[in-house]
Write a structure and sequence with these properties.
Number of domains: 2
Largest sheet: 5 strands, parallel
Number of strands: 19
CATH superfamily of the largest domain: Nitrogenase molybdenum iron protein domain
Distance between the termini: 50 Å
Structural class: alpha/beta
Strand content: 15-25%
Helix content: 25-40%
Strand order of the largest sheet: 7-6-5-10-11
CATH topology of the largest domain: Rossmann fold
Radius of gyration: 22 Å
């Protein structure tokens, strides 16, 4: 967006200032509830990426990379809408709450709003690829939610015309956020994708709930998630034989997987399975050659695959992609097709469901009545 459009964008902002998408809950009621609860403690038990402290008339929200204690930190002061409390540190960005309108950059961010039935707060997203939520699709169709472009190529004019209270970002991804800083709209990092435990990622719903005035709903939602997840952990505690599982596929001649300290590796551990890279100390992506994978996965019991395949995925489809896959024919393929399952927009706030799917695949006798939602064994 060129500078010459700044005047037009500013005029648009002045025309729509104070106008936000309608919500199903009264802002005044949410603000009152926030004021009443502002002194109550609200800190995560599993998430490492955010902390909240309460003060007279406001809360301080501190965010940092869950994987690096010495990383850049981000600081926000959450104040009830219409108030100007004293004593806020000068290096904290003030955000009036409840936040009425938000732009989401990722499906993981959107998942928090879907879980709280608050997609009416989301007025902008980057992409509708793999979008399943009917309400959000309808909002896009009616123009209530707009596409703002992709990371690194945002449409500043669309963003300014939407006039959100807040933009959720992923600062360690491809970026392009420098241009957004000039718009004067608070940018808040949502680092749930960097959490290394399923419950840690899911607990970011508390942060979003705090921002949009749905703290009680978010806490109640997470309590159900936590309870069921821990029930499943107890269920698998008696497992004596842990199957071995490997993950990933060849892309451009390389095999892409994740390290042994990753979110996915933790899910496998919780499902009482041994990840083939369990001794690897990396938490992010790992690039391997086929020979390395073959030597480590040769004795594995299961192969986890997450992809987007047009049609029925099968062993024949695998073999057609690469003839060497035929050597893995005896493995149980635990599969999720992104064209058919709302994995990205729902699974972040349903780790207990994902865990149940994996347990059903690895230890079918433990959950014989569970119907897979995301992952299931390929027939």
């Amino acid at each position: 967006m060129k500078i010459v459009l700044a005047g037009l964008c500013l005029a648009t902002l002045m025309l729509i200032s104070g106008c936000h998408s309608n919500t199903s809950r009264s802002d005044s009621k949410s603000a009152s509830a926030l004021q009443d609860s502002i002194s109550s403690p609200m800190n995560p038990s599993y998430a490492k990426g955010f902390r909240v402290t309460s003060h007279a008339g406001y809360r301080l929200l501190d965010i940092q990379d869950p994987q690096q204690e010495e990383s850049t930190s981000y600081h926000f002061a959450l104040v009830p809408r219409g108030t100007k409390p004293e004593g806020i540190p000068s290096d904290y960005t003030v955000i009036e709450t409840p936040v009425r309108s938000v732009i989401c950059m990722t499906a993981l961010q959107l998942s928090n709003f879907i879980a709280m039935e608050a997609v009416d707060r989301v007025i902008g997203i980057t992409s509708s690829r793999f979008l399943f939520n009917k309400e959000m699709k309808q909002r896009l169709k009616e123009g209530k939610t707009k596409k703002i472009g992709m990371e690194g190529n945002f449409d500043a004019e669309v963003i300014m015309s939407a006039n959100p209270d807040l933009i959720l970002i992923s600062p360690f991804k491809r970026g392009g956020y420098d241009s957004l800083k000039e718009l004067g709209i608070p940018l808040l990092p949502h680092l749930g994708y960097k959490e290394m435990t399923p419950l840690g990622q899911a607990e970011w719903i508390k942060c979003i709930g705090l921002l949009v005035g749905l703290e009680n709903e978010a806490n109640a939602k997470f309590e159900v998630i936590e309870h069921r997840y821990n029930e499943l952990l107890q269920l698998t505690a008696s497992v004596k034989k842990r199957p071995v599982v490997f993950s990933g596929e060849l892309r451009g001649g390389n095999w892409y997987a994740v390290g042994g300290k990753s979110f996915l590796a933790q899910l496998f551990r919780d499902a009482e399975a041994d990840y083939f890279l369990k001794d690897d100390n990396r938490s992010g992506g790992v690039t391997l050659d086929f020979e390395t994978v073959y030597s480590q996965a040769d004795k594995a019991d299961f192969w986890r695959i997450l992809n987007s395949y047009p049609g029925d995925f099968s062993y024949n489809a695998l073999k057609a992609e690469d003839s060497r896959y035929a050597d893995f024919r005896e493995k149980g393929v635990v599969y999720c097709n992104l064209r058919e399952r709302a994995f990205y927009e729902s699974s972040p706030t349903q780790p207990e469901v994902v865990l149940a799917d994996l347990i059903r695949a690895f230890h079918p006798d433990l959950l014989p009545d569970h119907t897979p939602v995301y992952y299931e064994l390929m027939k």
